[in-house]
Amino acid sequence: MKQKINIPTLRPAILLCMLCSLLLFQASIYAQETKTESEEAPAPVKAKPVKNTFESVWLIDNQTVMVPIKGTLEMDIMHRFGVVDKGYEDFWGFFAPSNIRLGVSYSPINKLNLGIGITKSNMLWDASAKYSIITQTKGIYPVSITYYGNLAYDTRKDKDKSIFKYPEDRVSFFNQIIIARKITDKFSLQIAPSISHQNSVNGYYTKNDSTGKEIFEEMKHDQLSVAVSGRYKLTNVTSVIVNYDQPITKHATNNPDPNLSFGLEFNTSSHSFQLFMGNYFFLNQQRNSLFNKNSPFKYTDVNGTEVKGGRFLIGFNITRLWNY
What we know:
single chain; mainly beta; two-stranded antiparallel ribbon; 18 strands; 13% helix; globular
């Protein structure tokens, strides 16, 4: 006997199979669409740091925000002639007593540079450290920030201890935060507040106006200053450079004068040459900040007469880089 098939009992099963097939078909289409969209969507572009804010680690008398890459060996030759105000007598300072600094530094890791140097004036040895904290990156960091510091040791002969009573009196320090921005492809600007410290201070005896007694007045141990520096590229290898240093701390005596310097910079891929006029002579940041007496605006001559105009000198920096 043939068995009858009950059609109504099969309907739920048929409907369930059709529903499952429809869901699987839609899932397959969605997966294909999602895959296609993901393949067509562009990958996010990684932000790149701004390069060549400055071409050299130096801008006249100040360090720039630049830190050479890992494995870079750097050599510096820095020279300052005498002031130009004597004119032909010493050939505008070229034949006057000059100051020279020789330095070398190395970047053992990225963002860190360590250096050492010696300066003719006072036979001053210095050791320095420079670290890049933030690098200007489009859409992330609007500026670059770098720390620079050095420790200097005066090695002049002083057998009778007339200059330094203790060995630690020969030591001075310099700490600076450099904040820079590459504003356009041609123009870069930086501002750098600093603090200089001297273990031994200069001073003199003077009469008190109210009592008439002789008292000893001296400089403070610390000096706050701020530097503003800029560079504008005329061509790919030639730039105009300007720098201004303003002392802030006021001392009882020996208040330092500001520095105004300007000149040209010539660059290749591995070296920089800067030729300029300015007021700083000492080739060490804390000595310049504490003891500069070459005013860019006016000064007092040997006869005690105030002279309008400044005491400028000609200088140059040569920086050479090797990558290993």
